Amino acid sequence: QVLKRSATSNLALLKVEKSNLPTAGFVNDGELKPGTKLVLLAQSAAGTIVNEGIVRSVAGDLIQSTMTETTAATGAAIFTVEGRVAGLASISQTGSVNVISASSLRVFLGL
After folding, report:
1. Do residues 63 and 55 make contact, with C-beta atoms less than 8 angstroms apart?
2. Are 39 and 48 in contact (CB under 8 A)?
3. Is the CB of residue 82 less than 8 Å from the CB of residue 44?
4. Cβ pair 25, 106 in contact under 8 A
5. Which of 11, 28, 64, 86 has the lowest CB atom count within 10 Å?
6. Rounded CA gap, 55 and 20, in Å?
7. Longest dimension (CA), the chain
8. SS3 of 97, please?
9. What pLDDT digit, counting tens, does each position of 42-89 carry?
C-alpha cells in the first residue's frame, strides 16, 4: 500500500505488512563529506547488486558519488561503512550514482 508519494522528489512511502524487521538509522546532517566511503545495496530482477565508492562532492542536498551503476539500482539504499543510511540512489543517464540525501528523506517522511 502506498502511503505517500512525491512526484518532484520521485519518492514513495510504502506500508509493509511485516514486523520485527531490522532497521538502520540515518546519517546526521553534514556528516557526509568528500571522501566518505559509501556502499550501495540493491535487489533487482537479476539478483543482488553491491557497489562501493566515495562521496565525490556535496552541495546542499545534492550528493555525488564516484560509483557508476545501471538503472536497475535506482532507489537502492546507500549506506556508510558504519551501517547508517546515507540516502537512496538516483542513477543518471550516464550511470553516475547520485544520492537522495538522508535529510531529504527525513523531510519527506516528516521526521
Report:
1. yes
2. no
3. no
4. no
5. 28
6. 32
7. 38
8. strand
9. 988 889 999 999 999 999 888 999 999 988 888 899 999 999 999 999
